[in-house]
Task: inverse folding
C-alpha cells in the first residue's frame, strides 16, 4: 500500500523539526519528517547556540527578536525547555565600523530590541574582564544569551508528534520524485511516500540533494572549530557573550566555568560525510591568543577540548527560504551560514506560512529567495565578520 503524506520534510535538524511543528500547528499534521541519522545530528548539535539580535538587516534582526521571545517561552509555545540562559551580548567594533554599529543599533531600537550603544566605562561594569582599545565602539543587548539546540530540536519534534505528525530517523532520502513539473513522491531505500510537497532542510547535504532534481544552489559547507576552555573562576567570573568584530572572534560562557570560543576557519569547502569533526591545535592557539588579547586573565584558562561543525554558507551569508521555481511543491530552507539557530523559531513559522499560504506572513522573507543570486540582489552586511550578516 502506498504511503501518502501531505508534506515530506527532509532533515531532522532544528529547521526541519521547527517547520514540521509549525505546519502541524497550522493544521497540516499529516506530514512525515525523514532524518538520515538521528535528530539534531547535523550542524544543529555542533552549534555554539548564541542568541543575539545584532544584525545589519531588519529581516534577520526581527526574526532574531521574535525567535528570542519563543526561546524564552518555549515550554508554553512548543514543549519542554529550550535551555535559554540570559547572559547579555556585547559587540565590539573598530573605529571604522562605529558608524555602522550605531546605525544598526538605531534600527534595532526602532523594531523593539532592547539594546544600546555603550561607553568604555559601561563595558568595565558589564564585563570587567575585557581589555578595550582607543577608538573601539560597543553595543550591548542585555536579553541575549544561549540555548540548547538538542532540547529545542527534540522539543519541536515531540510537539509535532503530539499534533499528529510522523518522524522517521535512520531514513535517508534517496530521491525526490518529480513528474512533469511537480513533486509526486519522496523515496528512501525502504519506501516510496506519495506527497505533493517536499521541503529540503538537509543542512550541508542540501546542495547535492537538490542537484539530483536539477536545482543548482550556491551552498558552500565550511568547517568551523569551537574551542572549549575552563576559566579559573577566581580570576574570570561570569561573562557576557562577546562578539569581537575587531578580531573576528566570538566567545560565550557555558555552564559552570566553561567558555566556548571560535574564530573563522580558512573557508575551504568540506564534504559533510568526511570532514574532520575535531579541533586542530593551530585553531586552538589562534583562538586562545585572540581571546587573551581581549580578556587578558583568560591566559589562566585550561583547554578542555572542542569540536568542529559545518556552516552551510551562501554568497551573502543569508539563508535561502523559498519555493523552487519550476517545480511545484518543492521548498527549501537552507544556507543558514552559521547563524541559523537563533532564527530557527521564526524560520519554522515563516516556512510553514510560505507552504500553506504562499508567503511569509509573520515576517516577510521574500528577499531571501533563491533567484537573488542570479539577479545580483544580494543581502548586505555592514561588517567584514560575515557571520554577523
Ligand atoms: C560550529 C557551529 C557554531 C554555530 N554557532 C551558532 C550560533 O552561535 N548561533 C546560531 O544562531 N547558529 C549557530 N550555528 C548555526 C546553526 O547551528 C545552524 O544554522 C542550524 O543548526 C542549521 O540547522 P539545519 O536544520 O538547517 O541543519 P542540520 O542541523 O545540519 O540538519 C540537517 C539534517 O538533515 C539530515 N539529512 C541530510 N541529508 C538527508 C537525507 N538525504 N535524508 C534525510 N535526512 C538528511 C542530516 O542528518 C541533519 O540532521 C553554528 C553552527 C556551527 C556548525
Result:
Amino acid at each position: 500500500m502506498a504511503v501518502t503524506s501531505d508534506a515530506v520534510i527532509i532533515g531532522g535538524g532544528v529547521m526541519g523539526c521547527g517547520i514540521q511543528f509549525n505546519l502541524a500547528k497550522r493544521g497540516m499534521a499529516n506530514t512525515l519528517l525523514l532524518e538520515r541519522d538521528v535528530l539534531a545530528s547535523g550542524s544543529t548539535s555542533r552549534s555554539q547556540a548564541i542568541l543575539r539580535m545584532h544584525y545589519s538587516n531588519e529581516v534577520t534582526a526581527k526574526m532574531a527578536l521574535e525567535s528570542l521571545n519563543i526561546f524564552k517561552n518555549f515550554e508554553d509555545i512548543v514543549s519542554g525547555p529550550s535551555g535559554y540562559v540570559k547572559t547579555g551580548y556585547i559587540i565590539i567594533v573598530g573605529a571604522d565600523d562605529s558608524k555602522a554599529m550605531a546605525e544598526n543599533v538605531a534600527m534595532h531600537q526602532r523594531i523593539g530590541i532592547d539594546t544600546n550603544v555603550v561607553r568604555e566605562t559601561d563595558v568595565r561594569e558589564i564585563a570587567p574582564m575585557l581589555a578595550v582599545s582607543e577608538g573601539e565602539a560597543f553595543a550591548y543587548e542585555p536579553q541575549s544569551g544561549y540555548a540548547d539546540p538538542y532540547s529545542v530540536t527534540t522539543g519541536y519534534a515531540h510537539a509535532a508528534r503530539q499534533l499528529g505528525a510522523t518522524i522517521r530517523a535512520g531514513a535517508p532520502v534517496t530521491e525526490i520524485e518529480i513528474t512533469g513539473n511537480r513533486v509526486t513522491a519522496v523515496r528512501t531505500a525502504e519506501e516510496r511516500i506519495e506527497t505533493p510537497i517536499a521541503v529540503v532542510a538537509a543542512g550541508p547535504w542540501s546542495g547535492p540533494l537538490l542537484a539530483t532534481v536539477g536545482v543548482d544552489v550556491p551552498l558552500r559547507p565550511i568547517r568551523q572549530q569551537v574551542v572549549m576552555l575552563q576559566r579559573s573562576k577566581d580570576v574570570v567570573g561570569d561573562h557576557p557573550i562577546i562578539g569581537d568584530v575587531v578580531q573576528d572572534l566570538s566567545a560565550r560562557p557555558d555552564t559552570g566555568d566553561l567558555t566556548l570560543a571560535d574564530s573563522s576557519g580558512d573557508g575551504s569547502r568540506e564534504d559533510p560525510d568526511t570532514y574532520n569533526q575535531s579541533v586542530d591545535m593551530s585553531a586552538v592557539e589562534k583562538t586562545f591568543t585572540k581571546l587573551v588579547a581581549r580578556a587578558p586573565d583568560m591566559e589562566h584558562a585550561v583547554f578542555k577540548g572542542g569540536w568542529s561543525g559545518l556552516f552551510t554558507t551562501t554568497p551573502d551569508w543569508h539563508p535561502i527560504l523559498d519555493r523552487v521555481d519550476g517545480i511545484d511543491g518543492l521548498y527549501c530552507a537552507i544556507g543558514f551560514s552559521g547563524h541559523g539557530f537563533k532564527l530557527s523559531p521564526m524560520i519554522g513559522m515563516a516556512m510553514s506560512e510560505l507552504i500553506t499560504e504562499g508567503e511569509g506572513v509573520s515576517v516577510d522573507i521574500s528577499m531571501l529567495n533563491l533567484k537573488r543570486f542570479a539577479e545580483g540582489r544580494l543581502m548586505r552586511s555592514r561588517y567584514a565578520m560575515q557571520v554577523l550578516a
